[in-house]
Amino acid sequence: MEKGNISVSTENIFPIIKKFLYSEHDIFLRELVSNAIDATTKVQKLSQMGEAKGDLGELKISLSIDKEAKTLTISDRGLGMTADEIKKYINTIALSSAEEFIEKFKGVDDKSAIIGHFGLGFYSAFMVSNKVEIKSKSYKDESAAHWSCTGSTEYELGTCDKADRGTDIILHIADDAVEFLEESKVSEVLNKYCKFLPFPIFFGTEEITNKDESNTETKTTIPKQINNPVPAWVKNPKDLTDEDYKNFYTELYPYEFDPLFWIHLNTDFPFNLKGILYFPKLKKTFEFNKSKIHLYSNQVFVTDAIEQIVPEFLTLLQGVIDSPDIPLNVSRSYLQGDPNVKKITAHIVKKVADKLAEIFKNNREDFEQKWESLAVFVKYGIISDEKFAERAKEFCLLKNTEGKYFTIEEYKEKIKTNQSSKDNLLNALYANSADAQHSFIDKAHDRGYDVLIMDAVIDNHFMQHLEYKTGNITFKRVDADTLDKLIEKDEKQESVLSEDEQKELKTFFEAVIEDKTATVELKPLSPDEDPVLITKNEFMRRMQEMSRLSGQDAMMGNKEFYNIVVNTNHKAVSTLLKEDEAKRNENIRNYVDLALLSHGMLTGKPLSAFIKRSFQHLTAV
Ligand code: ADP
Ligand code: MG
Prior knowledge:
Blueprint: H1 13-21, H2 27-48, E1 61-66, E2 71-76, H3 83-90, H4 98-104, E3 129-137, E4 145-149, E5 155-159, E6 166-173, H5 183-193, E7 201-211, E8 217-225, H6 242-252, E9 261-267, E10 273-279, E11 292-297, E12 300-303, E13 318-322, H7 332-337, H8 339-362, H9 364-384, H10 386-392, E14 397-399, E15 405-407, H11 408-416, E16 426-431, H12 438-446, E17 451-453, H13 459-470, E18 473-477, H14 481-491, H15 499-512, E19 518-523, E20 532-535, H16 538-549, H17 553-556, E21 562-567, H18 571-576, H19 581-597, H20 604-619
Parallel strand pairs: 1-7, 11-13, 16-17, 16-18, 19-21
Antiparallel strand pairs: 1-2, 2-6, 3-4, 3-6, 4-5, 7-8, 9-10, 10-13, 11-12, 14-15, 20-21
Helix pairs in contact: 8-9, 8-10, 9-10, 9-13
């Protein structure tokens, strides 16, 4: 048997890096600026340790473009590199000094973390450059080093006359990447990735106006700082006012309304997680098209596509999550299964539930006012996350047509007193449009029943979920056929018509009604009830609505199935039996049309015909 080492041919590695290492080209800027930040963090630590002597000067990072020379330069005032260190860290791909450095200064001051890890970031420079130069002067007393490489495996290393401590990375931009010689493009990328990096970053210039004592204005051009090195989420929550939180929100989302409230995440153990999550004013519809939470790692922007990292219902929130414990540069599907990511997600879900429970407990009125915006989030959370559902039972609200709010338990208590339920099953009535179902809501109220408003897209699923999970409650829309069953049970009406008369009546109605999706039912309701009502089977209707939502219209057809309920105890109905055929048919047509009209179900031709008939009737002399 033979054992050996597989050798990787280094000539092949550049094209691979160039093509596959990062899916987005602009990431090179994130990597190089991160390295500059790391170098700056390191020199600061060295100084604290007494290893780097003297005044460090202004610790900043500057970028500049030279259009003639076609270069983009990133300069820092960090610890620098000696020629030997360049050989060691740059010439060996995938060797990072980060571990070594962290090992060396373990426990000194762990607040400022090092971004680099993999020892691959630097080479992303070759995604946009055909030549890269490094000019670096170490904090150690050595002459400055000059390295250059054209993207092959050969490099040149010599000295140069750089006087100041720090490193210049000079990118000779390749022809297929000239956009990175445009100030606007570089600004855009810096704004995306580097907006909250912890040391001041300067790019381009801005003009400021000064006024002297005699009020004369002078304009001066100064370098423009493009970042906020101390964003709100890294500050101590104790030091922040509501105003600070709102200002930071505006910094993130300049065009949005003020958020409802926020949660400051600040955990060191068992994982490191910082961030601020905002509850935006939500609408009743889903807005999942794009998540609005930005993921950072040590203040470096990583992604705003966190849909697959956190549960979908959390993506309705906005804000920033910063965790060096979420592994970067690995595939999303891998991240979902990552144990750290799972723990972090569970933590966030818990914090969010805590916050909602707290507001509900401390200021229910305030909570109720915000409910419209919270409802979709909470309901979606209940449906999709068991842990969240467990907590949300306390504060998930149901709203009735009078604008009163109840927790699920409170509501059960409320309707219990009204229902003689043998089987312990409570019937909750709801409307999803107070306008369209107005007459039915009135009828239910007349009989002392309460009606909930369930008008969000998610409500069908939500009710289904509650029925399934809670077990002893069912939801029926006010116009569902069960309403008249409830009414029936309530009033124990006997029909004034004989069996034969009822049969006859049914055939009369069926003869007039052409619509095959309608079923005629005779019911002995109260004489004060309308002569004809429309009801819909709850199950059929929900099925239809859901299949329509999922775009499967064809499955159930566009037609709505409904019942035409004839109230056999209404005087006008018994009179029908005594009328001649023409008169009877006209009356039946009119009663049914009126019932359909109250439901918004009379449209098109039948509606025009009905209106014409009515006018003729009303204006007949
Ligand atoms: P990583 O950042 O993951 O360590 P990189 O490929 O980005 O990997 O960088 C490799 C090493 O090169 C770094 O660990 C650091 O030692 C050194 N280096 C890169 N850029 C700079 C810089 N601007 N100043 C000082 N050292 C640097
Ligand atoms: Mg790096």
